UniProtKB/TrEMBL annotation:
Ranges annotated as spanning the membrane: none
Protein name, UniProt field: Methyltransferase type 11 domain-containing protein
Pfam families, A to Z: Methyltransf_11
Domain Methyltransferase type: 64-172
NCBIfam families named among the record's database cross-references: AsSugarArsM
Length: 322
């Protein structure tokens, strides 16, 4: 059995017998007015963060959700795109598709705004998404791509790029690892399926996104997720996994590289009233400006005395300070 087949088997089991707390968080961080999440759906929250960011969802977007799980995030996306077919949710595991359909029917009874026609559940997998090129506004996946071996992760990322409209967004939540995961854990198919041993480091993960063609990546959250302890996982020292929420944009990669926003700010310290780098960044004296990591590095190198660069907050949503 390949590791992908093991993962599919594992998810068919947890579709039929929900495992509360599998993957990560046990409750959804996203509460929305007028949204009732049925307990059956909540129990099957197999995500490690959230991919539903209200600021990404203006304009009634079409959403392709990869790896439907119990349907929780498909329901949350529908909250923002209330029309038939607006959310297409894909999963190769028959039992999981059935569980999601069942949970969404219960949700329809408990949410007067929701109709099951808002979500179309389709058989398919991350490597062959059942939609045309350039056809969706948002692709989302939560806690699935970390299961993939690196080359498969790249294949899946390229596939999301194919189906997104130009300017479209890939919204993801995945575990990352604070150092490379040792081989003996990476080779454990069950741990991999449980989102515990396939994670890449932050740098490796972001590089794979950029190599797939995404010209802008924004980090929405980065937080501790699980500890692989020394004794149980046969490690030299404990290994902390984190969970990373990100949004990647299908825009061209600039000649000098992709823009990755991690919450850094550039602050001009004087002596003039403002500083213009002639590359699109005007810094007013004393007022922080959000910059990508590439620009932060350039400004820090060129103007170490005049410009202060703040640390990554690991939270960026397009805003500045004022
Ligand atoms: C960790 S669960 C996450 C479920 C859901 N995203 C959530 O947040 O609750 C992984 C999901 O991906 C599905 N899956 C497994 N292999 C897949 C593949 N190759 N392509 C798409 N989905 C897959 C599983 O059946 C399961 O529904």
């Amino acid at each position: 059995m390949t590791y992908l087949e093991s993962a599919a088997k594992f998810y068919s089991q947890v579709a039929e017998t929900p495992e509360v707390g599998l993957c990560c968080v046990q409750s959804t961080p996203l509460q929305l007015p007028g949204l009732v999440v049925p307990p059956q759906m909540q129990e099957m929250n197999y995500g490690c963060g959230t991919t539903v960011h209200p600021t990404e969802l203006s304009g009634n977007p079409t959403v392709l959700y990869v790896g439907v799980g119990g349907g929780l995030e498909a329901l949350q996306f529908s909250y923002f795109s209330r029309r038939p077919g607006a959310v297409v949710a894909v999963d190769p595991v028959d039992e999981m598709r059935k569980a999601a359909a069942r949970n969404l029917e219960i949700a329809a009874k408990e949410n007067e705004w929701f109709d099951t026609s808002f979500v179309t559940i389709k058989e398919g997998d991350a490597f062959a998404l059942p939609v045309p090129d350039n056809s969706v506004d948002v692709v989302a996946q939560n806690c699935l791509f970390n299961i993939f071996e690196p080359e498969d992760l790249s294949r899946a990322l390229h596939e999301t790029y194919r189906v997104l409209k130009p300017g479209g967004r890939l919204v993801m939540s995945d575990p990352i690892s604070t150092r490379p995961i040792p081989e003996h854990l990476q080779q454990d198919d069950r741990l991999r399926a449980m989102c515990l041993s396939g994670a890449l480091t932050y740098e490796q993960y972001v590089q794979r996104i950029i190599h797939a063609g995404f010209g802008q990546v924004e980090i929405r959250a980065r937080r501790p997720y699980r500890l692989l302890d020394q004794e149980n996982y046969k490690l030299d020292q404990h290994l902390l996994l984190e969970s990373l929420d990100s949004v990647s944009f299908k825009v061209d990669i600039a000649d000098d590289g992709a823009c990755v926003f991690t919450g850094k700010m550039a602050v001009y310290t004087g002596p003039e009233e403002y500083f213009d780098d002639k590359a699109g960044h005007i810094l007013s004296l004393g007022i922080p400006l959000a910059v990508c990591d590439k620009t932060a590095a350039k400004l820090a190198k060129a103007h170490p005395q005049a410009i202060m660069i703040t640390d990554s907050t690991w939270y960026y949503d397009g805003g500045g300070c004022c």
